[in-house]
Amino acid sequence: MPYPVPIPGSAPARLIEAAMRRFESEGRDAVNVIDVARDAGVTTGSLYHHFGSKEGLYVVIREEMERRMTERMEGAAAAVGSTGRGAVASSLLVAFDAALRFGVARILSEPALDPEGDAISLAIVPLLPPEGAGAAPALAGAWRGALGAVADGSTTGSAREGLRWVLGEV
Questions:
Q1: Per the confidence metrics, is the pTM higher than 0.85?
Q2: Partner of 142 for a Cys bridge, out of 35, 131, 133, 166, CB 3.0 to 4.6 A?
Q3: Residues 166, 147: contact at Cβ < 8 Å?
Q4: What gap in Å lies between CA 111 and CA 32, rounded to an integer?
């Protein structure tokens, strides 16, 4: 169930913003709730009240970012033709660019929360011919790998070109 959009400036909104910055700069495992709460100007009790745990907060952020990426993927695929190589390439390149604009490359480069329900992979499946549907996890993995390369210091251009190569665009 999606988390309701918090009121700007509210404790949940500040927690989400602070956690996004921390998760992006440090990675999920390295983040601690005390730092997130301090950055948000709230107590750790507020974090636990609104999100249940650090993991609950991460899930809210991750699911929202994946939702935003899949919406962009659907739009890009529709713009170039709803299926085929061009649709797959356009959708993943648009999502790559969007993840960078949102500043969530590291967050989205991490493994899917539920590999069976990987939102990015599931968004790719309808773009592939039936015999190629098994390629969706590999394509989502290449997308995550390109984002991870940027998060780890590679230039955006080289990571994007690598993704384009994997997608047959180069």
A1: yes
A2: 166
A3: no
A4: 20
